[in-house]
Amino acid sequence: MKSCEWHQRSVRTLGLLHSVLLLVLLQSEALAAKKLRGSRAQPRRTLPSPQYRERAEATESFPLDFTAVEGNMDNFMAQVKNLAQSLYPCSAQKLDYDMKLHFLENTSVTCNDGTPAGYYMKESKGSRRWLIFLEGGWYCFDKDTCESRYDTMRRLMSSTKWPQTKTGTGILSAQPEENPHWWNANMVFIPYCSSDVWSGASAKTDKSDYAFMGALIIQEVVKELLLKGLQNAKVLLLAGSSAGGTGVLLNVDRVAEQLEELGHTGIQVRGLSDSGWFLDNKQYRCTDCVDTISCAPTEAIKRGIKYWGGVVPERCRLAHEGEEWNCFFGYKVYPTLQSPVFVVQWLFDEAQLTVDNIHLTGQPVQEGQWRYIQNLGNELRSTLKDVPAMFAPACLSHEVITRNYWMDIQVKGTSLPRALQCWDRSLHDNSKNNKAPPKGCPVHLIDSCPWPHCNPTCPTIRDQYTGQEMNVIQFLLHMGFDVQKMAQQQGMEPSKLLGMLSSGS
Fold first, then answer.
1. Mean predicted lDDT score pLDDT of the chain
2. Does any domain span residue 453?
3. pLDDT at residue 42 above 50?
4. β-strand 461-462 against 469-470: which pairing, if any?
5. Using CA atoms, how far apart are residues 447 and 427, in angstroms rounded to an integer?
6. Which DSSP helix (H) or strand (E) runs through 318?
7. Spatial separation of the C-alpha atoms in residues 81 and 95, rounded to whole Å
8. What's the DSSP call for residue 286?
């Protein structure tokens, strides 16, 4: 085909496109900076010496900063794509963004049912940034709950029906318009098939019905990736959502120690825990521990850690010797961690409310339930106050970093991707010269408003029966929110409170 003869031309064109894109971004940032400075005369900067430039070029470059065009990103990216297609027609063809399935070469490390564990991977040639994502999906903690899980959610216990490819979304997306700061990283997605919150280290035997090898699966994936480019990495971000988010807290230090023991001391290991910061609080209504949903989290983990042969971080184990189940709860394990971790947590997490026996079935909640929900937000705020890098919107939801709306959520005017980029930069700067985080680049973001969905950028909520979207006021009234009473408590007129809610104040 003629297009095959143009391969070298395509490479040159993509290089040209990269240069054009970089120039456009630099120009945009220069214009934005000029507007901020006004008409004041600025001293001219002298060019760095060639020796300094060589040193600067040798350091790792950060992903392109889209801040200057954040307000009109869709239009900007459309223009870039049109430019690419006009420069080289073959670029109009669909690029391969999919991650490919790889089963572990060590077949002794398996899913619950003994089928081989594995991972999905998309390489990014030339990038020294790696993102490993741990999937979530609850757990089972004894023979009965595991058999029920195998009957109803077999995909989370077996690899027999895993597809050959997987398309990344949110922070796993390879498209800059959906993932502005991590799109060019090497992406790895590890499916959750161990049902043990990524903590198990026990194989299936004649006496045990299932294998629980979550912690070993992570170790084995890292070992294989070292033969596929990870050995040259500058940064490894271990991320996960829900049970995967808790798995990050349980495994990030172990991954760092594994790489160090294998001689890869130059790789900076970091964690990103999404919706995995659970509380061991008292349930709203206590019930018997008969299934995963109704069982109190503390009781489920106490049973599970024995059934799984679960392992926890060594420093946390020593701090809670004999009661290692404590290490599954974020506010208890976090202080013992040595690797930097960014925590993302909805203040009104749906999974937390579910295990606390608050079921939002479409009926207005009772006053006692409403108070419980508000107290949950206050408790989470309290446990997060000393976490330096975190993003906690006052929303009723669960999981976010792989959702297609993850760029839309803001806390105090800062989006989650922006906060993660600021955290990235602060860690890079600190490793170089121990400077404070850049000004105007916050990494500790938590909503102060007291009600679910009082943040106007929260994900859309739909009525469970009609499917219609609800605004903030409709949602709060639906939940049984007493406007008169709450306005009285705040010392204001009801009409003023409604106006504040409508505007997202």
1. 81
2. yes
3. no
4. antiparallel
5. 24
6. helix 314-319
7. 12
8. -
Cα 112 to Cα 460: distance, rounded to the nearest angstrom: 36
- 3-state DSSP percent of the chain in helix, strand and coil, to 5: 45, 15, 45
Residues 81 and 193 in one domain: no
Classify residue 472 as left (phi > 0), alpha (psi -120 to 50) or beta. alpha
> Are residues 82 and 155 located together in one domain of the fold?
no
Q: Output the CA angle 385-390-396, nearest 5 degrees.
A: 90
What pairs with residue 420 in β-bridges? none
Q: Which residues on adjacent β-strands are paired with residue 237? A: 131, 270
Q: Judge if 223 and 79 occupy the same domain.
A: no
Query: Total domain count for the chain?
Result: 3
pLDDT in tens, 132-156: 999 999 999 999 999 999 999 999 9
What's the CA gap between 429 and 384, in Å, rounded? 24
Do both 206 and 70 map to the same domain? Answer: no
Q: Is residue 13 part of a domain?
A: no
pLDDT tens for each residue of 376-399: 999 999 999 999 999 999 998 999
* Residues marked as catalytic: 242, 349, 398
* Tens digits of residue pLDDT in 45-85: 344 444 433 433 333 434 444 444 445 555 555 555 555 44
Residues 429 and 474 in one domain: no
Q: Give yes or no: residues 452 and 340 share one domain.
A: yes
The whole model's pTM is what? 0.79
**486 and 382 within one domain:** no
Pair 181, 63: CB distance under 8 Å:
yes
Share of the chain above pLDDT 90, in %: 56
β 390-392/444-446 pair status: parallel
Statement to judge: residues 72 and 119 lie in one domain = no
Q: What crossing angle do the helices spanning 483-490 and 494-503 adopt, rounded to 10°?
A: 100
Position 390 scores a pLDDT of 97
Q: Which two tokens stand for residue 182?
A: 């991590």
* Interior angle at CA 465, CA 459 and CA 467, nearest 5: 45
Task: Find all residues with CB under 8 Å of 203, minimum gap 6, and list them.
Answer: 108, 110, 211, 213
Q: Which two tokens stand for residue 203?
A: 């194989």
Structure tokens at 179: 């993932």
Cβ neighbors of 189 (< 8 A, separation 6 or more) are: 99, 119, 120, 121, 133, 135, 166, 168, 172
- Distances 456 to 19, 92, 301, 500 between C-alpha atoms, Å: 38, 37, 35, 11
- The residues, any chain, with a CB within 8 Å of residue 205's CB and separated by 6 or more, are none
Which residues face 116 on adjacent strands? 110
Q: Which helix (H) or strand (E) holds 33?
A: helix 7-37
Q: Is residue 15 part of a domain?
A: no
Which of these, 258, 270, 224, lies nearest to 106 by C-alpha position? 224
In three-state secondary structure terms, 230 is helix
Q: Identify whether 141 is part of a domain.
A: yes
Could you report the per-residue pLDDT of 208-257, keeping only the tens digit for each? 789 999 999 999 999 999 999 999 999 999 999 999 999 999 999 999 99
Between residues 355 and 119, the one the model is more confident about: 119
Please give the residue range of the domain that contains residue 400. 98-459
